[in-house]
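Document type: protein sequence-to-structure record

Subject area: structural biology

Format: plain text, a pair of labelled lines:
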Amino acid sequence: MEPSKYARVTMANFEFDELPGFKNDVNAAFSKLRGRLRLSELEVPVREAYLMLNGFPVAGSSMEVWWLGIKDSIIRLATVWHDNNQRDEGVAEADRKPLEGDALVRYYQHELDLYFAEDRKLAKHLEFKMLTHSKSSPSLFLKRLKLLEKDLNGSVLCHNLP
């Protein structure tokens, strides 16, 4: 596979553990795009952001398959998502901003988060089951539990405690 045009992290395996690095690359590419166009974050045209996103998938990869499934509707879906977010924030309909490139990029990342949510949850459940106090300090153990709590969102039942 040839490397992606924009991302250092190509998500070659298209797995959730590659996502944080990939999202950093998406944000860096968007910043470069803004700089190249000499625009502020809220001025990047949707078309430019879409073309940038279209350059991420590596040909023949699982990510390309995911992208092909969403690319034709992403602008429409992002517009609805963007409007709903503004409504939820209490922005009056007359004051709502149209979709811009930054919101399209955020929606793209949101869709990736949703796509990987179940895999991430299963991996975090396994990590929780394997987590033991061992020789580490109690505060380190508690810190690791709190990090897992955020990802598990209350889905762990504590019925096997001694």
About this structure: Helices lie at 19-37, 46-54, 62-70, 74-88, 101-130, 138-152.
